[in-house]
Amino acid sequence: MEITSLHWSSGLFHRDQTRDARAEKPQFSVPSEATPAFEVPAVDEKALDYSAIAPRLLREVALQRYVSGEIDQDTYIALAQELPMQISDTSGNVLDLSSVTDDTEFDFAAYYTDQRELAISLGDDEKAATLTSVLRFLNS
């Protein structure tokens, strides 16, 4: 029996060069006349009226001020908390807040003033100090 060597010709291993060629990806450029799909309106904090502001907007402004380091964590937590369903004011009346939603305007200045006065009268100095810093935030 005779053994002969086999030589493979390069024609059998012909590769499709178009598959290996690197195609240049098109570069996308944004035309100068393109307009953004949406814009986030800038909030002018000096124009905010905390006697008539929605809870959602108050939380957004408080988060911005907390991230920038202008307010501390306790103040941010007090501002970010949801309103209770009922509260009592300084004269002892129970107020129903169940109709206040995230988009309903609410008088936060009066609310936090009453809550601070109640905390002082109950002797809760820690809560009163936090509410004082909240009122400083609202008055700034």
Describe the structure.
There is one protein chain. This protein has 140 residues and is mostly helical. Helix content is 39%, strand content 4%. The protein contains five helices and two strands, in the order αααββαα. The protein has helices spanning 17-20, 55-67, 73-80, 108-122, 125-139; strands at residues 86-88, 94-96. A two-stranded antiparallel sheet has the order 1-2. The longest helix is centred in the C-terminal third of the chain and has 15 residues, at 108-122. It is elongated and about 115 Å long.
Kindly state the mean pLDDT as a whole number? Answer: 79
Whole-angstrom Rg: 33 Å
Distance between the termini: 103 Å
Shape: elongated
Tell me what portion of residues adopts beta-strand conformation: under 5%
β-strand number: 2
- How do the strands line up in the largest sheet? 1-2
Low-confidence stretches: none
Please, what is the oligomeric state?
A: single chain
Structural class: mainly alpha
The number of helices is 5
Q: Tell me about the biggest sheet?
A: 2 strands, antiparallel
Percent helix range:
25-40%
Helix-strand string:
HHHEEHH
For this entry, give a set of tags.
mainly alpha, 5 helices, 2 strands
Describe the protein's topology:
Elements: H1 17-20, H2 55-67, H3 73-80, E1 86-88, E2 94-96, H4 108-122, H5 125-139
Antiparallel strand pairs: 1-2
Helix pairs in contact: 2-3, 3-5, 4-5
Q: Short description, anyone?
A:
By secondary structure, this protein is mainly α. 39% of the residues lie in helices and 4% in strands.
